[in-house]
Write a structure and sequence with these properties.
Blueprint lengths: L1 H28 L2 H8 L2 E6 L1 H5 L6 H10 L2 E4 L5 H4 L18 H12 L4 E4 L3 E2 L5 H6 L5 H24 L6 E9 L2 E2 L1 H10 L8 E2 L11 H15 L4 E6 L8 H15 L6 E4 L2 E3 L11 H16 L3 E12 L11 H19 L6 E4 L9 H4 L3 E2 L12 H11 L4 H8 L12 H6 L6 E3 L22 E3 L2 H4 L7 H10 L4
Helix pairs in contact: 2-15, 8-10, 12-13, 13-15
Length: 495
């Protein structure tokens, strides 16, 4: 009798343990990180400077969410020039690695490694703001050649340093992509002219002024030079142009961006993609407005235009802010706004990640407790998928619903067997991720074209050869396939 009772108790204990294990496994499979892995996508977020510098100072909810939910990181500020080159170098026109302050890079890599995250986006090499004070003081006295020499040598030093991290044997973390230049297209003057001259606003979109690199008259030649410098420093790192307000196909700023990157492609300038920041506005307190189905169609067309150029579109800084009941601090929003925000999150994520040339989607922060929106956009807030207590919002459910609806990696592989694969040079990051046998190579590059206003589809003209980095070549030290790379980036042990 006693033996039978003990046996029943043991059976119950085993059953309870099995249930708890199953619950744990079920929960693990519903994290963004786990879902994204099955679809061959990267879903990530930015890391606050406070966390990078001192993780112990952050709430436990911040740390656990960051460690469990994402498979790619980007630093909000730690990779910017003000952090990496705070002091004037001996020769600003021939910067060496020894001139850099690389501690923040090392710390960022350590935080990713601790959380088992293997992929980091580098943001941003060249930006008109968050530049060191010595540069903003000195650069106005430099010639165009000196500004270009400074920028290219700085890029060479930073990217070369990061390449040593990438090339380390069995490196668990890779800085796989760089925003080479950030927000160099300006539309602020267009707004002013629009008020006074109506349609004249369209022609006023152009390269940003009021920057430390204003002394370079030929801005496109400058952009070409810095992209080439980054490619020369690391042939395998992905190179991206990043900006806001370029998401909607047919808008003046999107037109300008497409012409700019299309010209780069036609000249053989190494560029792999465009970062679409995606700082969107959600529904107002009445439930009206926000990201619509019409917006989704324009957003999708932008990916199609980039795809025609052989370029990826990466969602780099996504948030969807809500109008609150306060104009000075982050106030309250309605439950209806939050529900509609969840629907619009789903629409945005589904539109982006369903594109074959959208390999990654990152939010700019993940919790309303650490969002930049309330101070940057007074009267708005609640823009991210986790609330101030790190609870999942309808926005989070919108992301998971959208990802679940995507085809799996295996389904994409099966589909690719019935189609002709593009050449390696036209292969996007997302396609390479689904094709585990890719090893890189050379191929044709689309030629010159012009996007009209409204844009027309580009045509491929001349051919030119250039090396292109595949996922496998990024991990050349270990000769890993794309599947192995993905496993490493999603399941690297914390140490």
């Amino acid at each position: 009798m006693m033996g039978s009772r003990a046996s029943r108790q043991l059976s119950i204990w085993i059953w309870c343990c099995a249930c708890l294990l199953a619950m744990g496994n079920a929960e693990a499979q519903t994290t963004l990180r786990a879902l994204a892995k099955t679809k061959g996508k990267l879903v990530g977020t930015s890391l606050s400077s406070n966390y990078i510098d001192n993780p112990a100072s952050m709430p436990s909810g911040y740390q656990s969410t960051l460690a469990n939910e994402f498979n790619v990181y980007v630093a909000e500020n730690s990779f910017k020039m003000s952090e990496l080159l705070p002091n004037a170098p001996a020769n600003p026109f021939d910067i060496q690695i020894s001139d850099l302050s690389t501690a923040k890079i090392d710390i960022m890599v350590a935080r990713a490694r601790e959380n088992g995250v293997g992929m980091i986006r580098g943001h941003a090499l060249i930006w008109h703001t968050q530049a060191p004070s010595w540069l903003t003081t000195s650069a106005p006295g430099w010639t165009a050649d000196q500004i270009t020499a400074f920028a290219t040598s700085y890029i060479k030093a930073v990217v070369t340093y990061c390449k040593t991290i990438n090339d380390a044997v069995d490196a668990p973390v890779r800085i796989y992509e760089w925003d080479v230049i950030n927000e160099t297209i300006d539309k602020s003057k267009a707004r002013a002219k629009k008020r006074s001259r109506g349609s004249a606003a369209k022609s006023s979109i152009g390269y940003r002024t009021g920057t430390w690199y204003d002394g370079v008259a030929n801005r496109q030649a400058f952009i070409d030079a810095i992209f080439r410098a980054a490619r020369n420093a690391d042939p395998n790192v992905r190179l991206v142009y990043n900006d806001y307000g370029i998401e909607m196909y047919g808008s003046p700023k999107c037109n300008f961006m497409l012409n700019m990157v299309g010209g780069m492609v036609s000249r053989g300038v190494p560029i792999d993609g465009v970062g679409l920041q995606c700082h969107f506005i959600g529904p107002d307190p009445s439930g009206a407005g926000g990201f619509s189905s019409s917006d989704a169609r324009k957003f999708e067309q932008t990916f199609a235009a980039l795809r025609a150029l052989g370029l990826d579109g990466i969602v780099t800084e996504f948030d969807l802010r809500l109008q609150t009941d306060s104009t000075t601090i982050e106030g309250n929003v309605t439950s209806r706004q939050l529900a509609l925000q969840g629907d619009q999150y789903r629409l945005i994520v589904a539109t982006a990640l369903s594109q074959s040339n959208c390999p990654a989607l990152l939010t700019w922060g993940f919790t309303d407790a650490q969002s930049w929106i309330p101070w940057a956009c007074p009267g708005y807030g609640h823009a991210l998928p986790f609330d101030r207590s790190y609870a999942k919002k309808p926005a989070y459910e919108g992301i998971t619903t959208a990802i679940k609806a995507l085809p799996t990696v295996e389904e994409n592989k099966a589909s690719s067997l019935t189609t002709t694969l593009p050449t390696a040079s036209a292969m996007t990051f997302g396609q390479a991720l689904s094709n585990s046998t890719l090893s890189g190579g050379e191929g044709s590059v689309p030629g010159s074209f012009t996007f009209a206003s409204p844009p027309v589809a580009p045509t491929r003209m001349k051919s030119e050869k250039r090396p292109v980095a595949s996922l496998a070549s990024m991990w050349s030290a270990s000769q890993a396939t794309a599947t192995e790379i993905w496993r490493a980036s999603s399941e690297s042990p914390a140490y």
